[in-house]
Predict the structure.
Amino acid sequence: MAFEDVPLRGADRLRAALIAACVTALSFCLGDAIAGQYPFGPRTRDVNDLGNQFVPFHAHLWDLLHGRADGGWLLNWQSGYGSSFLPDYGTYLSSPFAPLVALFPRDQIDLAVYVVTVLKIASAAAAMAWLLLTLRPGPRWAAGVLGASYALCGWTLMMASYNPMWLDGLIAFPMLCLVGEWARQGRRPFWGIAVVALCWTANFYIAYMATIGAALVLVARLLTDQDPRTTNRARLFTLGRAALTTALGIGLTAPLLLTIVKGTKLAYPGRQEVFHPQPWADLLMRLLPGTYGFSSPSTYVDTAAVLLAFVLPFHSAVPKRSRVVWTVLALAVAASFQWRPTHLVWHAFTTPNGSAYRQTFVLSGILVIAAWLALSHALPNPRQLACGAGVMGAAAGIAALGAPSSLAGQGTWPLLGVGVVASVGALFVLWRAGTAQAGPGRWKVAAGVAVGVLVVAQVGQLALSNAWIDRKRLSVMDDYPTWGQRQSWQRSTIASVDDWPTSRTDPGREQTVGNDPLAVGGQGAQYYSSLTPDVYTRTMLALGGGWTSRGRNLQSLDNPVTDVIFSVGARLRSPRDPHASHIPQTAPPAVVRENVPPLVTVRATPPSGAYGRSPYRNQELLLGSDVYTTHRVTVTDNSGNDVPLASGGVYRTPGHRGNLQRSTYRIAASCPAGTDVYFWAPSFNGNVRIAGGDPVNWRGALPSHRAPIQRLGGTPADGRVMLELRALPGNSTVDPDGLGCLSLPRLAAAEQRIAATAATQVHVGSDGISAQLPQGARGTAVIAAPAITGWSCSAGDGTHPGRSYLGLLSVPLDGRSTSISCSFTPPGLHLGEAAGGASLLGVAALAGYGWWRSRRRPAGNGDGDGGEPEPVQPPALPEEAVI
């Protein structure tokens, strides 16, 4: 049955978009409900970085929008003792949907992020449905259903649903394809620039991939355009218009984009990945519903869409050139996933940590467009359906024989079978209804039932696939609790003792998530971001800090010496998170207060040296006083035999599964009576106990996890310290300089000495800090914040870049200045402003050129200057599009 052309009504695209959005939201939420996942059940959805990074960052955005954050849009005082915020904003929060979290209560931040996630996925479905009807008219119900197929592709369900900023790229692909259509038609140049700028602002990384995909779609559209007015010259004009639109749109985002690029270069280096392509059988398996695999691309779109895409090469109603071009495009994009040079192009020339197939949504979008072309030209006949089903069966057979069985879920094959039967049957009924000569009323009812079957089958398959992935993801990834009583207690306790900026309040060593200061308040050492500064990570490493995520997730350092250094006057002491320990928390956290100097202190002399290996000596170097007694220790095994020093100058203390005796080690040492015993073993994994004390958990597995210095207890009156170490299975090491004995009286004296010459008044703003100093202050003013790039400081001698005092921000003093002032500008911002201004001038020039051409063009002549050809008008909407 061929579709006949009828005029396209403006409301048809909107109706298709609404159908797509509703089907998508229903399917996604239904899947979460089946999985018993928040907000429909007791299971948390905060896995990996969603709980550790994205929800806390959205909580900080809530605070900013409500005027309750410590810091502003340029500088974040709550994380990492003072960090650049604009690059984090551009990485995690610059989506136009993100501010919607401000409409929810603060303690419902998880629900707010979930609602934003659903809205983004539904918007992607609506955008794709709109695009499909722009590419070619057809039934709006079909455009809506295929829009949902795209929005809930396997990439969304597997990866993007818990990386909400990636979902902006899912929206960007059809939107940028629309920009390509406007360029092809010579229409809406300024809307096109605005759309490009919006997409790249929302999330530049995935928008970059979407831009590549949209460019490929535009090339395919130009190659398949057989209108005689579309000459090669016209095609070049179209590509030029599209390139100019894209360049100007990206240029407008430069103030944000370049701060992210610069922040990435200044970040602590992450893991260097090497790309290894996955077997083709794995890629074919991932086309099927209900599969799960983190390292392979989730190429799934629902069975009806895949079937129609496979029908396209055999569909005689579709022009041959279209069939060839779109089939080759889909195969070429899939092949580009497996070749290292094109893999690097897709990922901005760097293999990412984690999933190496982040561009997979582009292939899903191309498959959906191919499915639409197969359906919108004419409903496929039984022979064509059989050919498409045969290709699908062959792909499934190869996958079943060649791919690991672990990729398939419990419902993969039943869902595939039901989906194929429902899709083939419904499409056959629709084709038969369109060709029937008698009984049109009866066939019309049958056609309605067939459409209903397609929609129900799609919703069921998408929902069950989502539910399976939800359950599987929770079983293999780290997970974190949604907001509950623990976080409410922490937040209220911090609010009751917070004395910022006189001193800091740290949420505590027993963290709930990796960004506790953003989630519950305070100003701590914790900071987890892809942009964690290198200088901050290395400073905390030298001071004995701990991390996860290979140095990009810095943890709180519960140590009185560093509390004095960083002016931490109050610290929460919470029990272990009940979500991890399964031990209920029955009371608010305790608060430990300390006397600490203000944020700005004056050091009369420069540091006596550079950081070395021992964190105890490094802390003393930064403090300016000796407060530890240290001894080299020896380690013995459970039989009393000495453990020899291995290469690298450490003791190897491996754990043995099922053998507690061989996993136990001991250290005998001495400390001055009355001192506190601290232990440093960054690569030990297990627990450590001082005689008479409780075991203290240690999690060191370098390079991914680094254990911090921790307190074990007090020194007995006889000064003899006995430690017992029990290693978990795997490799562990202990450093011979790992034991430190802290004298609290010495520390108190050092604090008083520092406070005596410290700033008399400190003012902290959203983009800087200033302080009043005692008369005649000489030496160096040291600010308890990391010396990250971007600080500019003055002390009466002009403004100069902030300097480093063993990793902390500092300002040299000449004895005449009574105040200092430092302001922060994210690196790359000024260059970005210049580039953005140039792009804005380009937009103005384009507008002026358009005005000049409109004045110069004679009336009634669409191309009076003999320049570009008339824009090609899109074909009219078929009658079935009003169904």
User: Anything to note?
Assistant: The CA atoms of residues 686 and 727 lie 4 Å apart. The mean pLDDT is 92. The chain is about 45% helix and 15% strand. The radius of gyration is 31 Å.
